[in-house]
Amino acid sequence: MTHHRTSSTLPGCCSGQVSPTGQVWDVSGLFVAGNGVIPTPTACNPTLTGVALAVAGARHIAESINSTSTEK
After folding, report:
1. pLDDT digit string (tens) for 9-19?
2. Would you give the DSSP letter of residue 44?
3. Contact 54/34 with Cβ under 8 angstroms?
């Protein structure tokens, strides 16, 4: 039996620690990715879900960097 930590940095607009894209509300440019942002425990191994969240967060960061660099 294994134990997978989830829900340690919940996303949410009012009570969560991170935005839906994984950015920490109080620290600009700081992102959290992985199993910590899964809102509720899953019934099975959450590894692929954590990887998918990390990839989505990385894409968001890359897009924001690209949009910032093209504005200059």
Report:
1. 766 666 677 88
2. S
3. yes
Backbone phi and psi for residue 37, each to the nearest 5 degrees, phi listed first: -95, 5
- Radius of gyration of the chain from its Cα atoms, rounded to whole angstroms: 14
Q: Smallest Cα–Cα separation from 7: which of 32, 36, 45?
A: 36
At residue 34, what is the residue type?
A: G
Across 4-72, the runs of DSSP E, i.e. the strands, are none
The H or E element that residue 54 is part of is: helix 47-71
Residue with tokens 């990385």: 58
SS3 18: strand
pTM for the model stands at 0.69
